[in-house]
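Hi team, as promised in this morning's meeting, here are the two structures we talked about. I've kept the exact order from the run log so nobody has to guess. The first one is mostly here for context; it's the second one we should focus on when we meet again. Sequence first, then the predicted structure tokens.
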Amino acid sequence: MKKSLLVATLLAAAVAAQAQTTDTLKKIKDTGTVVMGVRSSSGALSYTLGDGKYTGFHVELCQRAIDDIGKQLGKKIEVKYQEVTSANRIPLVQNGTVDIECGSTTNNEARAKDVAFAHTAYVEEVRILTKVNSGIKDIKDLNGKSVATTTGTTSVQLLRKNERAAGLDFKEVFGKDHADSFQLLESGRADAFVMDGQIVMGLASKSKTPAEFHTVGPALSVEPIAIMVRKDDPAFLAAVNKTIDGMEKSGEMAKLYDKWFMQPIPPTNTKVGLPASEYTKAAWANPNSMTTEQLAAKK
């Protein structure tokens, strides 16, 4: 085979493979299965119950979208869970290991180049969690302290960029996941934990001594958190958005939020106690997939 023909053949095969990879609805119809990317400790958004079971606000939202797709396809869809981390979640969506990622991923311009985000159902505020007796009351009190965050997230970067953090010198310590980061704070190896508000509040509420922890200072940023799917798969993205938009319009989204953030949740039956923010309510009222940068520009 001539080199030019071989190159053309390989290119055609690659294009065909990419097309097959990104046709998620066809894959679901042919196999009767979907792979859901989930987190083990992303607060009330996505967490494990043990024994391979996962639950949370985003997990249930994804399940509803999958159920709707099953009705559209006329078949029951089996969900297979794939636990992901902050570090590997985007590559696993890109390479087809995960069909729909239902964790706690911020929709920003950099990530939107690699994956597609569904319409926002939750808008997060990044907060500083510390112990009540730490003496830390604001960002400036972090000077000379150790600050925990989770590998693969942007929270400490946001802290460093905050104008109130100018001139501060603090040490970063990294947890492999959110639960590990919280343990750094709980055990005294870190003085503060910077992460999404519902994550830090959720982890604190499930600790042995919830009253020992509180959030301090202003929110570091406001970030739309959204479900991820592969790029260049508009049909699947539209199917997911159809469920989200319908729930936001009908008021079901507000009820789902109340279930996970204002009511006792398993397995400890503790409350996160985080009312929906005005940003979250605005996202429900006008379904969109704005990035963090676009949201900040509107503030």
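And here is the second protein, the one for discussion:
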Amino acid sequence: MATVPREHFRISRGEDALRLYRWNSGVAQHYFCATCGIYVYHRRRSNPEVLSVNACCIDGLDYRALPLRQVDGKSRSAVSPP
């Protein structure tokens, strides 16, 4: 996932295929492709002005060049490499 400020995010094509999923408080907004099911992006509950975008969905971006960060999913904190 790549972090993007909401004002810098633009969908160039395929927006009509996106489907919204919400749960709990409804603040977070999760978008999936209705055709293939890929998780495209979400608007965060903790900071609605920031989006987390599936880097593989960004045309022209080499996702392998992005820095990796390991996170403990339960505590949501960074994990030190072994």
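Starting points for discussion:
The chain has a mean pLDDT of 87.
The chain has one domain: 2-63.
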